[in-house]
């Protein structure tokens, strides 16, 4: 049997549990352990041991674990996920794309480092998904969309064809974005919103239509 590469999970909360399940289901990596700033070393999550805090990154890298993933989700803004991604990169780790086996991702889509695509998500042809973006459970990204870095597309969201989503944007659960719409950097789209017009950088909108 081929030996699996080891991977570290940063974060031990709800998103980490879902991500651990994805990794176990895909069978591509052996999870070496969890690093979490708040959980006690020696505790466990989903049967995976908490090894300690993020300051162990360098030590674990020396012990032949060269892969890491960001097991922290986000609510309304993505700065913590971005900071952890940059910290892990600085420590020398590779951050692989993690795609649930039940997701559909077109072979005509470009996916960058650290992207996570969760169960039941769909990414159609011609899309470009930039680094450390999270496409959560059951989200739909239609054809020819450009999704920036450190974006969170929440569960059940529908991004129609030809949309551009700026770096750090947060698209709330169940939101719908009309075809060809541009959403600016760090914009926040509320739960269940329907976006029919361009949303400028840093704007927070909600409602039907979103405003």
Description:
- The chain is built from 3 helices and 23 strands.
- It has 211 residues and is an alpha/beta fold.
- The chain folds into 2 domains: 5-90, Rossmann fold (3-Layer(aba) Sandwich), CATH 3.40.50; 97-206, UDP N-Acetylglucosamine Acyltransferase, domain 1, CATH 2.160.10.
- Strands 6-9-12-15-18-21-23 form a 7-stranded parallel β-sheet, with helices on one face.
- A hairpin with a 2-residue loop joins strand 3 and strand 4 (48-52).
- The longest helix is centred in the first third of the chain and has 13 residues, at 14-26.
- The model has no long low-confidence stretch (mean pLDDT 95).
Q: Output the structural class.
A: alpha/beta
Question: Whole-number radius of gyration?
Answer: 17 Å
Q: How many E strands?
A: 23
- Classify the oligomer: single chain
In short:
It contains three helices and 23 strands. It has 211 residues and is an alpha/beta fold.
How is this fold's topology laid out?
Blueprint: E1 5-10, H1 14-26, E2 29-35, E3 44-45, E4 48-52, H2 57-62, E5 67-70, H3 79-90, E6 98-99, E7 104-105, E8 110-111, E9 116-117, E10 122-123, E11 128-129, E12 134-135, E13 140-141, E14 146-147, E15 152-153, E16 158-159, E17 164-165, E18 170-171, E19 176-177, E20 182-183, E21 188-189, E22 194-195, E23 204-205
Parallel strand pairs: 1-2, 1-5, 2-4, 6-9, 7-10, 8-11, 9-12, 10-13, 11-14, 12-15, 13-16, 14-17, 15-18, 16-19, 17-20, 18-21, 19-22, 21-23
Antiparallel strand pairs: 3-4
């Amino acid at each position: 049997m081929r030996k699996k590469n080891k991977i570290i999970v940063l974060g031990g909360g709800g998103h980490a549990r879902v991500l651990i399940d994805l990794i176990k289901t895909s069978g591509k990596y052996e999870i070496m352990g969890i690093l979490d700033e708040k959980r006690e070393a020696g505790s466990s999550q989903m049967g995976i041991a908490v090894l300690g805090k993020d300051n162990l990154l360098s030590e674990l890298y020396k012990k032949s674990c060269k892969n890491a993933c960001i097991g922290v989700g986000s609510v309304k803004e993505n700065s913590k996920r971005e900071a952890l991604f940059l910290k892990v990169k600085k420590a020398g780790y590779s951050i692989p794309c993690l795609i649930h086996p039940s997701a559909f991702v077109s072979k005509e889509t470009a996916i960058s480092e650290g992207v996570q695509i969760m169960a039941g998500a769909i990414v159609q042809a011609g899309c470009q998904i930039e680094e450390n973006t999270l496409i959560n459970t059951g989200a739909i990204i239609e054809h020819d969309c450009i999704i920036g870095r450190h974006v969170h597309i929440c569960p059940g969201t529908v991004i129609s064809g030809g949309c551009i989503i700026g770096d750090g944007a947060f698209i709330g659960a169940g939101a719908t974005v009309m075809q060809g719409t541009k959403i600016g950097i760090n914009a926040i789209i509320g739960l269940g919103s329907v976006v029919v017009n361009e949303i400028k950088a840093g704007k927070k909108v909600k409602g039907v239509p979103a405003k």
